[in-house]
């Protein structure tokens, strides 16, 4: 444990030397904020308790949300923060994963040059992990979001796909459903039917109206659907992946601005000494574990399911928690006990 503590302090010192201000957050976090962000799914992964004064609370499942809240309330711009401490996540029996573990993090809030900030965080994490037998992985949730947002279908269908972006099975099922012509008949609610359960007759009827509208919507454009599926299948070194995505953009031009940001990021990474020609990229990376990221995502892995470090861009989170304000933000966390075990 002493060596893990030494590793924790080394990482914290590295992040402080990079200009980060140390911050602390409460172990107990308001549950309503996290439920608003993640939905009820978070209950299956977090430890929830009830306080007679504070109301429903959760043992801190991560640091990013409270750090963003703190910055959006009174933070200067630009800003860099670092933190260390325990986070708590329920684990399934037999996985061997710890339910509480240390994280050391680094977060950047800077609107001047997002590509440079992405490169700064990634390069700093690569430096922190130097000497460890880890392999970097990268992706870009922003490309996938742009691809879905650019589909020529209804706003309702685009919203449904975006809502399930981080649930690949459900996302795939929706794509299959939306690619077919629907012929089912949706009945109306009879006025004399008694109200049973939590929903009113008006709420049920509103849902049925939505289902009728969806049933009358044309299937997804076949060319756009193939392009979206091609985005998910891209997997190569980053410059080659970018070239492949440029080809796909001919059929799905909505992703072009995201690809321009991808290209700017590669240039910024190269400027910081990262060998981008040997940097893996996957169109699906980050979709199952990085729910609040909406741009560049990365991780450092050592051959096991639990990454030693993860991070990415989460601009939309600052907009949700900023009460009318927003700022581009990127950051990540390292698990010092996993790093120490590798070293």
Description:
This protein is of the alpha+beta class. Among the domains are: 143 residues, BirA Bifunctional Protein, domain 2; 66 residues, no CATH class. Helices cover 43% and strands 18% of the residues. It is built from 13 helices and 12 strands. It has a 7-stranded mixed beta sheet with strand order 1-5-6-12-11-10-7, sandwiched between helices. Strand 10 and strand 11 form a beta hairpin. Helix 1 crosses helix 13, helix 5 runs antiparallel to helix 9 and helix 6 runs antiparallel to helix 7. The longest helix has 16 residues. The protein starts with a helix and ends with a helix. The model has no long low-confidence stretch (mean pLDDT 88).
> Regions with pLDDT < 50 over 5+ consecutive residues?
none
The name of the CATH superfamily of the domain at 1-131 and 332-343 reads Bira Bifunctional Protein, Domain 2
Please state the CA-atom Rg, rounded to the nearest Å.
Answer: 22 Å
Strand order of the largest sheet: 1-5-6-12-11-10-7
pLDDT averaged residue by residue: 88
CATH architecture of the domain at 1-131 and 332-343, by name, is 2-Layer Sandwich
Give the SSE string. HEEHEEHEEHEHHHHHEHHEEEHEH
The biggest beta sheet is recorded as: 7 strands, mixed
CATH topology of the domain at 1-131 and 332-343: BirA Bifunctional Protein, domain 2
Q: What is the overall number of helices?
A: 13
CATH class of the domain at 1-131 and 332-343: Alpha Beta
Helix/strand structural class: alpha+beta
Binding site for L-histidine: 62-64, 89, 103, 107, 287, 292-293
EC number: 2.4.2.17
Domain Class II Histidinyl-tRNA synthetase (HisRS)-like catalytic core: 3-167, 210-334
Protein name: ATP phosphoribosyltransferase regulatory subunit
